[in-house]
Amino acid sequence: MTDRLHKHGRFFDVWSRFYRAGPFGWELRRIQRRALRALAAKTGERVLDLGCGPADGAAWLRARGVNAIGLDYSKGMLESARRQPELRGRLIRGDAGRLPFATGAFDHLVCTNSFHHYPDHQAALGEMRRVLRPGGRLLLVDPLAGTLGSFLAIDLGERLLFRLEEVRTFTLEAWPRMLREAGFSSASVRRGSALSPVAFAEVFVEATA
To answer: What's the rounded Cα separation, in Å, for the pair 37 and 204?
Structure first.
């Protein structure tokens, strides 16, 4: 497991150098911002930004009084994130399959466009459920299996070009079953807006612990 994590971590270490550059990065951040608005976290609530990357999401939440923490495995992404003063002491390096937090530690958890990189997807969902308080909300966005965008970016790009064999996406039909098995009580699973090619190739998941 550690070797697989290191491989994916190195991929994101490189990506961290230009993550914010170019239209693809801009669109990913726009989608993340939309997810954060839908989360509607209140002042003082505890939110985990899982797979936080440069932690733009956690910074956006903290600027609005939310008690946000960012976790990522990539050293490069965390180095980029630490340049934001408001995130000092709020960033942790860790494994999504073994979260270093107490059970019920968070009111909400947001995870955007990193889930497909987790080596053990079901274990990661189980950990998300564990660290959420009863009634806490998960908001997750990830590439959707069976779409052209997912095929080009994930199957051809990440899996074949970069040899990240563990990368995996899931269908709209698979998500409700996975969430039930992880212990979530209810879920809404839908495809993104057709007005955006990137969003249309993604799944938007909202689930209650």
So the answer is: 13
Domain regions of the chain by residue span: 2-208
- CA-CA distance, 114 to 71, in Å (whole number)? 11
Classified by CATH at the fold level, domain 2-208 comes out as Rossmann fold (3.40.50)
**From the CB of residue 54, how many other CB atoms can be counted at a distance below 10 Å?**
26
pLDDT band at 170 (very low <50, low <70, confident <90, very high): very high
Instruction: Give yes or no for a contact between 108 and 41, defined as CB atoms under 8 angstroms apart.
Output: yes
Sheet with 186-191, side-by-side order of all strands:
91-93, 67-72, 46-50, 106-112, 132-143, 202-208, 186-191
Rounded to the nearest 5°, which phi and psi values hold at 165?
Answer: -60, -25
pTM of the model: 0.89
If one counts every other C-beta atom within 10 angstroms of the C-beta of residue 16, the result is 20
Average of per-residue pLDDT across 29-46 = 92
Confidence of residue 133 (pLDDT cuts 50, 70, 90): very high
* C-alpha angle 83-89-93 in degrees, rounded to nearest 5: 80
CB half-sphere exposure, 160, CA atoms < 13 A: 8
